[in-house]
Structure formats: structure tokens, C-alpha cells
Design brief:
Largest sheet: 7 strands, parallel
Number of strands: 15
Pfam families: LRR_14, NB-ARC, WHD_DRP
Protein name: NB-ARC domain-containing protein
InterPro entries: Apaf_helical (IPR042197), LRR_dom_sf (IPR032675), LRR_R13L4/SHOC2-like (IPR055414), NB-ARC (IPR002182), P-loop_NTPase (IPR027417), WH-like_DNA-bd_sf (IPR036388), WHD_DRP (IPR058922)
Number of domains: 4
Organism: Stylosanthes scabra
Distance between the termini: 55 Å
Keywords: Plant defense, Repeat
């Protein structure tokens, strides 16, 4: 089992790591969540690991506090009920810091070296030329490529990203030389940990795409992005502006994602078995970003975008008070990433009138939404797909006249009170996991610009309501 820990000393929380281990061992287990106490997590972990033989990989640890590591190791040993070594169980830790290795290690550390030249060249050819025969057709490019390859020092990520960049400039010898002779190679990666080869890939992105790429760093490392989530973020920042009447913002967003994928600045994430049906139905694929590339994106982030977007993992119950602050009046995006949300105060959205994108967390405990959400008249995207406990929606939601993208999960039986016919800008409507939903409002037929309607896992849904029923 693999658990990605953190790149920040301050984020190394023993309880959170234990929770990640439990989810890695038993991903479908619903007995605990992020609200569970440490004792509850340890009790379940003990049930799972009791007399079990396992290999646990704790990836990317930066924490240099020996007390935190000793606490974590003590909990793991206690959960196993016996000496781990006697059963053949092992824990492997990966870290970029020698000091961390000395703190956590019981064996001498294994230092990872660069790939041998032969493997480096094979990988480079695959990315830059696709195959060896094609490389032989361009002997001058091949020689320039070998010079560039030497600068990558055997790092697979550097080879992959640069190879993909060079493939787009395959017939341009001048462009290859510019990359080979770039001044960026003279920068020392030790200054900020960012490889010069990655900076080169970033520098060759179109300006608007550079901004989109930078915004990805607002999410934590090892985060699994949904493609639509990324597109909504970029759209809220006005980065997906069509240049002609035939272009649509979401199509531009999809093309940007494909460019980042082809440049190896993003990667496709394997889809968990339990969500394959939903992903297939909604055609919303998952993405991830390498830690070093995340560092690059973070280094290019503008301060202005940081203050206009909040990606929060620690919003607590009743935290609406802080959102009434004028400090957030220019906020464009609020994306809450934790499950510790049971209540939002009625006035929590009063002063965030410029909010364009709102996403509430997965598996939250909210039973109702604050009425002030209906004042967000320029809100473009609203994601309530994690609100499975939601019993009702505000009747004044009809005031969200700019809403273009709605992702909805709730426990009610009808949507008629929302007056969906008022959502004349609505282009995407996803109704997912509404277990008690019996009927849909016929007003959906009046949504003239609706392009995508997805209804999934709504087993009780049987018909459309007629206009008279809705009026009542």
C-alpha cells in the first residue's frame, strides 16, 4: 500500500497519516472518515492489520520532527499487535532529505541514482521521436537531442517533459538548439528544487495556458483533479475566453488539459474501481500532477490569484463568520476539500458577491444551504455533488441567473421548487446520486442552451412533473 504524505513539515499530522493508511488498506470502508477520532482510526487499523503481513510505502516525507515520527511508528507497531519484522512486514519511506532518512531509518538509506544512459536514450526517443527509426531520419536533431539528454542527468521526469516538448518542435532544428543552449540550464536546481528542464517546458507554454497551469498549484500535492473541476477554476478566472463564435469555454479548457497532458505536465490518474461507472457515465476523467511539477507551478503563481481563490481543507463548522469579512470581497473561487462541514451560517456568502465558482466538499454533513447563497448573482459554477445529506435547497435559487454549470446531489424527492426554468444560462446539469428523487421539473425543457444533461444513480426517478403540479 502506498500513502503520499506531504511536502510540508507543518502538514505532517499523525492522525491524518493514519487516516490515509486506513483508506489505502481499505478504500471502500465507511466506518471512519476525516471526522473520526484518532482512537477510532487506530481501532479500525488494528482490526485490519492484526496478524497481517504488509508492505507500507510512505512517500515524500519532509518532516524532521523525530517525536512525530516516533508517535506514528508507535501507533503502527501497536496496531500490528506484535513485532512487524517477525511477520515479514516492512515500511519503506521515500524522502528528498538525508536528515529525514537518518531520523526514520533503521537501515542504511538507499540513494536513488539517475537512469543509465541506454535507458535514458530509449525514453528520450520514445517521447521526442516516438520510435528509433524516426530518430534516424533526423540525424542532426538526434545529435542535438543527445546534448540535451546529458543535461537531464538521468532524471526520468526531466527526460519525459523535455522529450514531449521537443516532439512539438520536431522539424525545427533552430528550436531544438534554443533549448539546448538556453541560459536556464545554468540555474542551480538546488536553489528552489526545480529542475531547469521543467522550467523550459513551462516557458514554452502559451501565456494564457501558463496562468492555467499555475492555478493548479492551489491544490495540495498528490491531489487528484477532476477535469471539470479544473475547467471551472480556469473559467472563474476568465482564462477560457473564446476567440470566435464557434469556440466554447469548456472546449478551450479541454484543449488546454490535452496540451498539458502531451507536455507531461499533467498525467492521467487511474480510476478507482468503485467510481468507474460514474466516470463512464459523466465522461469526467481524473488527473494528477508530479510533485516536482507542482513545485514549478507554485513558483509561478501570482499573489493576486492566491487571494482570489481559496482551496481550503480546514473549514470548520459555523465558519461562515470569517467569510463575511471584507477581506474576501474579491473572492472568485471557493473550493472546500474537507468533510468536516456540518453547518454554514446564513450570512456566510453576503460579502462574496464576486464569487464565480463554489464547490462544497465530498461527503459533507450539510442538511441545508444558507439562504445567502442565492445572492451570488454572477456565480457560474456550483458543485453540490458531495451533499448527499442535503434535505432541501433554498427556494430563491432561481436568483442564480448566471449559473452555467450545476452538479447536484441531494436527498429530496423533487426539484420543482427551484424553478429551473429561470436558469437560462445553464449549459451543464449533472444530477447524480439523488437516491430519493422521484421526478424532474418539466421546465428543464425550456433550458435553451443546455448542452449536457447527466442523470446517474437516481433509481427512484420515474417521470417529469407537469406544469400544473410545479405551479402548486
Amino acid at each position: 500500500m502506498l500513502v503520499c504524505v506531504s511536502d510540508d513539515d507543518r502538514d505532517f499530522e499523525v492522525k491524518r497519516v493514519i487516516y490515509q493508511i486506513v483508506k489505502a488498506v481499505s478504500p471502500g470502508d465507511t466506518r471512519v472518515n476525516q471526522n473520526s477520532s484518532l482512537d477510532q482510526l487506530l481501532s479500525l487499523l488494528k482490526q485490519i492489520l492484526h496478524e497481517a503481513r504488509f508492505l507500507l510505502v510512505l512517500d515524500d516525507i519532509w518532516n524532521e520532527d523525530p517525536m512525530k515520527w516516533d508517535a506514528l511508528r508507535g501507533h503502527l507497531e501497536s496496531a500490528c499487535s506484535s513485532d512487524m519484522n517477525s511477520k515479514g512486514s516492512k515500511i519503506i519511506v521515500t524522502t528528498p532529505r538525508n536528515t529525514v532518512a537518518s531520523i526514520v531509518g533503521t537501515k542504511p538509506p538507499i540513494l536513488l541514482r539517475g537512469l543509465p544512459y541506454k535507458e535514458c536514450w530509449e525514453l528520450f526517443v520514445k517521447c521526442a521521436f516516438q520510435e528509433q527509426k524516426e530518430a534516424e531520419q533526423y540525424p542532426r536533431l538526434r545529435e542535438i537531442g543527445k546534448a540535451i539528454l546529458e543535461k537531464c542527468t538521468g532524471v526520468p521526469l526531466a527526460i519525459t517533459t523535455l522529450g514531449c516538448l521537443l516532439r512539438s518542435k520536431q522539424c525545427g532544428e533552430h528550436e531544438w538548439k534554443k533549448i539546448r543552449d538556453s541560459e536556464i540550464w545554468k540555474l542551480d536546481a538546488k536553489d528552489d528544487g526545480i529542475l531547469p528542464s521543467l522550467r523550459l517546458s513551462y516557458n514554452h507554454l502559451p501565456q494564457r495556458l501558463k496562468q492555467c497551469f499555475s492555478l493548479c498549484s492551489l491544490y495540495p500535492k498528490d491531489y487528484i483533479y477532476q477535469a471539470n473541476q479544473m475547467i471551472m477554476l480556469w473559467m472563474a478566472h476568465g482564462l477560457l475566453q473564446p476567440t470566435n463564435e464557434e469556440e466554447e469555454p469548456e472546449q478551450i479548457g479541454e484543449s488546454y488539459i490535452n496540451i498539458l497532458l502531451s507536455a507531461s505536465l499533467l498525467q492521467h490518474e487511474d480510476i478507482p474501481l468503485d467510481v468507474i461507472p460514474m466516470v463512464s457515465a459523466t465522461r469526467l476523467y481524473l488527473l494528477t500532477m508530479h510533485d516536482l511539477i507542482h513545485d514549478l507551478a507554485k513558483s509561478t503563481m501570482k499573489e493576486s490569484n492566491k487571494t482570489r481563490t481559496i482551496i481550503s481543507s480546514k473549514i470548520q463548522e459555523g465558519s461562515g463568520v470569517e467569510w463575511t469579512s471584507h477581506e474576501f470581497k474579491r473572492l472568485k473561487v471557493w473550493d472546500v476539500e474537507n468533510t468536516e462541514l456540518e453547518l454554514l451560517l446564513d450570512d456566510c456568502f453576503v460579502n462574496v458577491k464576486y464569487l464565480r465558482c463554489l464547490r462544497l466538499p465530498e461527503d459533507n454533513m450539510l442538511e441545508k444551504l444558507p439562504s445567502s447563497i442565492c445572492k451570488l448573482q454572477i456565480l457560474q459554477s456550483l458543485d453540490l455533488s458531495g451533499c448527499k445529506n442535503l434535505l432541501e435547497l433554498p427556494k430563491s435559487m432561481r436568483n442564480l441567473v448566471s449559473l452555467g454549470y450545476l452538479f447536484l446531489t441531494f436527498s429530496g424527492t423533487s426539484l420543482s421548487f427551484m424553478d429551473t426554468g429561470n436558469f437560462q444560462q445553464l449549459q451543464w446539469l449533472f444530477i447524480v446520486g439523488c437516491k430519493n428523487l422521484v421526478s424532474l421539473p418539466s421546465a428543464l425543457g425550456r433550458l435553451s442552451v443546455l448542452k449536457k444533461l447527466i442523470i446517474f444513480e437516481c433509481e427512484e426517478l420515474v417521470n417529469f412533473e407537469d406544469e400544473e403540479d410545479e405551479a402548486e
